[in-house]
């Protein structure tokens, strides 16, 4: 017996609301940026904004897969660090090695994703604990391998992935390669969720894994795949980060929480069942626009953390408020 | 009451940005370090790790111990490349003294004060150590633990100090003001009055870093150079590059970049490259990647240092103490050289990794360059 | 209804098993490395002292996890309390009590905000407490320049003094643990915590004001974080805005609580398990030191052990986890 | 002389956005009276009880308890006023003891300190009073659903309860446990407790209630004494029309070839289960709560597989180790607990209906291709008469009957040959029940088959072509269509060889 009668007119479409929330926040923040510094409206600076936001957006897309299935991935920052360090050690300045090494990096990432997924589904360790463990583990491995500091060099063809900007492109002026990588990754991530049956399976698994299992859904495979996608996104983001600014041991620090925050700001629901790729994309762009805005405002560095915290609570609070008003 | 205290502190302090700088602005110490920079060091020529500034020496006969000894080292952690290079120095130096050293026990506190205190207590109570070397994570926090250790065995402290005179000696280079003076004066000499400098810093509130900025800021203010911004980058290359790009995009003219540590200097320079701008005057540090860039791009630059060879000195001092030899003390002030254009080539070693600190004094040590990640 | 349903025979509790393993590991390593001095009274005291800070935070974390929530703001709060205590005291023993009161007041306020956001605001606790943690951390770092100071010498007795060779800090941990265990097991508040964590809807229908219980649990967690902050201030003489973050007290307190058998969904677990988890971490710290394991490898091992320790009791669970 | 009603609700109205859930409803219950409320889902029964329990506040109307006006803003106030509600969804703490659960929210404590010994003693006393032999220190997770229900009742009795609301209390109970419960209700009535009894099981209602009130579309239709309310009248009032042909007619043709054949199926809960299922057949499975009938369903769908024995599909041996394998073999499952096991409540009706189809096609299949297209599934949903304003709306907002139909569509879309239904009409109103029975018959008649596990005896007798009866993990008997409840009960109690009087009640 349900309390809400079947003729209830208060229907809603989660996906559309998510788009609205993330997009609206992003537009508002970007408008504020443009108000403070009008040249952000030029295509060149917008492209640069995209280039710098690319790693976070990509990470958020990967994190979204995991969030949809009801989990968390805290290990993606560590994977990004591993990627940057491993790339510099393996390539060691030899441009011919770049593509083979990128292949190896993806293999490593997929391995981490598989470990996360297998431990969670078969050993039944909650994802927050599992990925906390793999975060420590992967970070430790990366540091142990590199000896705790950057080693080797990244050749230009690797660096270009995050750094190259084509100038004098018609219409948009400049075009960063990273923006293309971003577009391609978002398109792939979108395709995975909306262009195949996977997305709906993931939502069902996040909503009610038991019901999904009994309906024949391969729950374990769906979960594991989400963690693999998340790890692949971390590898991609790591490659862009390494390309953008070079090798460092803290390349991925704190990115996992930013990625989770991005998804949430964009309207995805923690513990699963609600959200779309646009939650991740616009949530991440919003978060990055917020960072940019706070920089432009010249607030003391430390207070930027505080404001980020406030926005996070406010964004989720607003979602809760909207949901409550509906019922 | 709590709320009011909180509110009061927030309002009063957040918007008074200078508050930070003033706490680390000690004119007496500034003057002292400025003098130390120009002093001629005593000790063996060409071995700055064994040299010292000033005359103070301490007697250590009471600590003399024959036969093989065990040294214990409580390390704050290896959470940045400087400490990684330093730890390699320390281990390599220990290898030089195989005949005298039975064992070197290294305990890592992972950047946690609380753990380091426990670590020191465990080392002391374990009874294996003949002398204890401490690189404290935080000055005040480690003081009681070091004091307790002093009562049992000779203690050598280096890098950051402790608020007690009980250690046999405290080894450190000239210091943060010295670092800021060297870099600040160089930039001031290359810029005109009214020119702009961007200050890039790792994080606020760390004494050894705050003094660097305070010294440089004093010099810039005196020279009439405009500090357009002071930004914290958390040693993150991506963040450094982004911050600089933001300033460039804002249309600021940046004539010089001052950094309180050089590990992200090349990232800052790349921002200028990517924007198609000429390189600014820059102060970095003694990292290989920065030196190489400096050489290849013919930068106007300086590389002040906070030399990693002090990690060697710690072992040397500890063994001297157990030998009963006189050692410089109660403070062993090491020379703090800066890399300038004329000596640049000498410090570049293509075999070494990008974040290798050139003033490691490790070129002659066993295992060079592989131990330090070189080829 | 003919079947007799009787109380099941309890197996070996997680806490005992875990504590036994930890101690076993410590003893074996000490013997194997010849560090027999670590098995003396002093060595063992040192081992236990490693538990104090994390132990205090983790007990508080146990309360919120039991009630089905979580608190990521503890690390920032620990820093805030340590900084505030040293600032208010300024080395003056007369200011000890006011400092403690101010700090506990701050904790109550933070716990209240956390609890209100979660219980009344309906905001996911991970996000709510991540947010408040960021806010605290930011305000703290921004105002730290003017919050310098150090605690009174007399105050440091908490961390460095002792009676009959037992440090006061251990007595503090023991006392507060016993209090917490007593509260959970023997009081109305404890029963309500298990009820709200085990079945929030059921608890509400049974007339329990669930929001208040969640709010109170958050205040308890904040107060315990405050106790850890005060202890650290005493131990470190003055606080910095990073001691909480550098100690990773947020994630580690969650990890030890879960390792100790408290389930993240709430309603099952307790203080004994949590303390056993803390003992495991302390033994690992001490053991790895004796073995001279390199810092990075240590991280790898700790990651593996966290997963393995939780897997040991999670693997038998029926149903899905996420 | 008139008795002051223990409870009197007058003119209760409550509106939700866009819906009038209750419209001026009057309801009263005398001391020592069992007053049943009947109505379809959405008729307003739950809303009325939530208002009584303090979970909702009415827009208009008054509540009087023994003549005193009351206003509740929190369930606690209702509880303090002597109202106890036993909800359909159990609200127990699985990891706590029975005593802890009975005293949840009402612990015996002095100055905040629990008196555990007193609670244990009092709990034991209460359990004895309701005839449940349960150790107060047992963990609730170790109890069967039926025992958990008894704990719920003990919980309600703990308080000085003057008004006890039982919302579908027998939904999870088998025949035998239901009878025990009804006896208990009877004895409570004797103690002067007023009982509001909500149930869809008509025989139960007419057996126990003193008066019956019918709600429809938020309004009260009538209140009558039991003797003036035969089942047919009740049904007509509830649905607004006659439902003569409640169960579909028996199939025209005889069962055909064997589809599924189980031989010696055994696992922790089942012993040596052997039977065949033929095309065109609906097989009922009856038994007591712990007889293994639920375990049999779980084994057939691979959820709790057989550990030994063989399963053959159309003569070919197959493995059923996971629900996915079973699905692939053409076996579909309607779980007994819709919310926990059947539905992804926050997803749309369409998504829930497509769940299996989407799970079984290749991973890279386009979501709108062929049978996966919105239009195709919408057509199927309409054909099943799933009523929703928009199939894109969350399935959690639908009534139980419509939810159940959507799950059936899920398996029809997958073209499963064998459906395993567990309690297919639990908590579902009469009209939807009839529709589901009709669907089951049509499905079977099309050459496929259904295994239906149910605690609702009349349902099994009405719908199944033959009934397997289980007792202690074994099949104790196999009765054909037309068997009586007594026969089935006899087998369910394991009395096949020694018929006895007591089963006839």
TrEMBL record, chain A:
<feature type="transmembrane region" description="Helical">
    <location>
        <begin position="74"/>
        <end position="91"/>
    </location>
</feature>
<feature type="transmembrane region" description="Helical">
    <location>
        <begin position="49"/>
        <end position="67"/>
    </location>
</feature>
<dbReference type="Pfam" id="PF02653">
    <property type="entry name" value="BPD_transp_2"/>
</dbReference>
<feature type="transmembrane region" description="Helical">
    <location>
        <begin position="97"/>
        <end position="121"/>
    </location>
</feature>
<protein>
    <submittedName>
        <fullName>ABC transporter permease</fullName>
    </submittedName>
</protein>
<feature type="transmembrane region" description="Helical">
    <location>
        <begin position="128"/>
        <end position="149"/>
    </location>
</feature>
<keyword id="KW-0472">Membrane</keyword>
<feature type="transmembrane region" description="Helical">
    <location>
        <begin position="169"/>
        <end position="193"/>
    </location>
</feature>
<feature type="transmembrane region" description="Helical">
    <location>
        <begin position="224"/>
        <end position="245"/>
    </location>
</feature>
<dbReference type="InterPro" id="IPR001851">
    <property type="entry name" value="ABC_transp_permease"/>
</dbReference>
<feature type="transmembrane region" description="Helical">
    <location>
        <begin position="17"/>
        <end position="37"/>
    </location>
</feature>
<keyword id="KW-1133">Transmembrane helix</keyword>
UniProtKB/TrEMBL annotation, chain B:
<dbReference type="InterPro" id="IPR025997">
    <property type="entry name" value="SBP_2_dom"/>
</dbReference>
<feature type="signal peptide">
    <location>
        <begin position="1"/>
        <end position="21"/>
    </location>
</feature>
<feature type="region of interest" description="Disordered">
    <location>
        <begin position="31"/>
        <end position="51"/>
    </location>
</feature>
<dbReference type="Pfam" id="PF13407">
    <property type="entry name" value="Peripla_BP_4"/>
</dbReference>
<keyword id="KW-0732">Signal</keyword>
<feature type="domain" description="Periplasmic binding protein">
    <location>
        <begin position="80"/>
        <end position="326"/>
    </location>
</feature>
<protein>
    <submittedName>
        <fullName>ABC transporter substrate-binding protein</fullName>
    </submittedName>
</protein>
<dbReference type="InterPro" id="IPR028082">
    <property type="entry name" value="Peripla_BP_I"/>
</dbReference>
<comment type="similarity">
    <text>Belongs to the bacterial solute-binding protein 2 family.</text>
</comment>
From TrEMBL, chain C:
<dbReference type="InterPro" id="IPR001851">
    <property type="entry name" value="ABC_transp_permease"/>
</dbReference>
<feature type="transmembrane region" description="Helical">
    <location>
        <begin position="52"/>
        <end position="85"/>
    </location>
</feature>
<feature type="transmembrane region" description="Helical">
    <location>
        <begin position="159"/>
        <end position="184"/>
    </location>
</feature>
<feature type="transmembrane region" description="Helical">
    <location>
        <begin position="254"/>
        <end position="284"/>
    </location>
</feature>
<feature type="transmembrane region" description="Helical">
    <location>
        <begin position="126"/>
        <end position="147"/>
    </location>
</feature>
<keyword id="KW-1133">Transmembrane helix</keyword>
<dbReference type="Pfam" id="PF02653">
    <property type="entry name" value="BPD_transp_2"/>
</dbReference>
<feature type="transmembrane region" description="Helical">
    <location>
        <begin position="296"/>
        <end position="315"/>
    </location>
</feature>
<feature type="transmembrane region" description="Helical">
    <location>
        <begin position="12"/>
        <end position="32"/>
    </location>
</feature>
<feature type="transmembrane region" description="Helical">
    <location>
        <begin position="97"/>
        <end position="120"/>
    </location>
</feature>
<keyword id="KW-1003">Cell membrane</keyword>
<keyword id="KW-0812">Transmembrane</keyword>
UniProtKB/TrEMBL annotation, chain D:
<dbReference type="InterPro" id="IPR027417">
    <property type="entry name" value="P-loop_NTPase"/>
</dbReference>
<keyword id="KW-0472">Membrane</keyword>
<dbReference type="InterPro" id="IPR003593">
    <property type="entry name" value="AAA+_ATPase"/>
</dbReference>
<dbReference type="GO" id="GO:0005524">
    <property type="term" value="F:ATP binding"/>
</dbReference>
<dbReference type="InterPro" id="IPR017871">
    <property type="entry name" value="ABC_transporter-like_CS"/>
</dbReference>
<dbReference type="InterPro" id="IPR050107">
    <property type="entry name" value="ABC_carbohydrate_import_ATPase"/>
</dbReference>
<comment type="similarity">
    <text>Belongs to the ABC transporter superfamily.</text>
</comment>
<dbReference type="Pfam" id="PF00005">
    <property type="entry name" value="ABC_tran"/>
</dbReference>
<keyword id="KW-1003">Cell membrane</keyword>
<keyword id="KW-0067">ATP-binding</keyword>
<feature type="domain" description="ABC transporter">
    <location>
        <begin position="7"/>
        <end position="242"/>
    </location>
</feature>
<keyword id="KW-0813">Transport</keyword>
